[in-house]
Each structure stands twice: as C-alpha cells, then as structure tokens.
Amino acid sequence: MDEVARITNPEIEDYILSFYPRVHEVFYDMEKRAEGSDVKIVGPLMGRFLSQICLFRGTKSIFEMGSGFGYSALWFAHSLGEEGEITCTDWLRENAEAAHGYFTRAGQAAKLRFVCGDALDILANSDSKFDIIFNDIDKESYPRVIELAREKLNPGGMLITDNVLWGGRVLAGGGSESTQGVLEFNRLLFSDPGFFSTVLPLRDGVALSVRI
Questions:
Q1: Distance set, CA 144 to CA 48, 69, 189 (Å)
Q2: Shortest CA distance to 62 belongs to which of 36, 38, 89?
Q3: How far, in Å, CA of 181 to CA of 42, rounded?
Q4: Spatial distance between the Cα atoms of 26 and 113, rounded to a whole number of angstroms
Q5: Which residues pair with 170 in a beta bridge?
Q6: β-sheet bridge partners, residue 132
Q7: Structure confidence by residue, pLDDT tens digits, 58-111
Q8: Residue 159 DSSP one-character state
Q9: For residue 104, what are the CA distances in angstroms to 31, 125, 145, 146?
Q10: What is the rounded distance in angstroms from the CA atom of residue 179 to the CA atom of residue 139?
Q11: pTM, whole model, 2 decimals?
C-alpha cells in the first residue's frame, strides 16, 4: 500500500502551501512536535480548510473526537468568534496540558475546553448540541460515531471526518480492524438519510456531512 499512501501529489501540496501566509508561529512548533510523536496531525492544508469552514458557517460550538495535543482544534479556534468554544477530547492528560499551552501562546485559551477520556462517552453524556463535530478517533470505532453525531449536532450542523480514504487501503477492502471500521463508516454514512455527505480527496480524505 506504500504506492497509494499519499492521496495527493506532495509537489502539488507544496505549491498550494506556497500561497498560504504564516498564521501563527505556534503551528510550526506543533508540527515539529508531531514529527517525533505518535500523535498524527491533519497538517496545514487540512487545518486551513477546517478554519475556513468554521469561518463561513459562523460556528459557535465545536466538539472534537480525538484531539491529540490540539493542532486541528487550534485551527478551528483561529476562526471562532470570541464567544465560541471548542471541546477537545483525548485519553492523555499530557496532551491536554500541551493543548492548553499552545492555545495560551496563540491567544485562544478562552475558547478551549479539554476533557480527558473516551470521546464517544463524553459526547454521549454531553447536554449540549454542536455546530460542528470533528471525528478523528480510533478507526475501528468510526461506525459508532454516525448515530451519536446525528443526535448531538444542531440542525444544519456538520460532521467532519478525517482519514476516510485511509491511505488508499479502502480500495483493497478487508484488512485490519481499523480498515474495516473506515469501510463500514463510509458505507453507513452514505446510506444515512439524516446526512448529506461528500468526500474530498484532501490529504487522507475528509468527509463533510451536513445534518439534514
């Protein structure tokens, strides 16, 4: 699968990035941290896209399922209004502490709420509904997200799911539990009348699903 691990041409990605201005130095520090970490980040192309979605929707509330140390969350926060809030989730306290540090450096600390634990349980037990839910948890758990997101999104809200092309492994079928989880998620998502969904071949594939 090495030959299909990159969905888009790296040279094309570099060309696109050449047009993008520097947003904040903290993003570059986070990217360097990810290079030596098990935490995978969405990268600046996807980050800017998330920020733009947040901007044109007038988003006020976001729930992230699987936040790591807050890279994608900070891109969201960059376009959230002053009264907006993003709820982040991760198992590790050290990731929560790192995220608070990065958000503080970027002047976005007031928008961050970080809860440690299982993202599915935290969302299920939340009394709130959200404008955006960003799904980036363990892939074998992806199919469980759909019904829960439908319940917890505001009407017209958006479920954004990363890695839906899974390095091209979706083409082979079967495979690991993670690959099977992505395949089943995609099948269920596009058969769900409660969502209008589209897949963009950006980075590792991102699904945008509007709650009908």
A1: 27, 23, 11
A2: 89
A3: 19
A4: 19
A5: none
A6: 62, 158
A7: 899 999 999 999 999 999 999 999 999 999 999 999 999 999 999 999 999 999
A8: E
A9: 17, 27, 30, 32
A10: 7
A11: 0.94
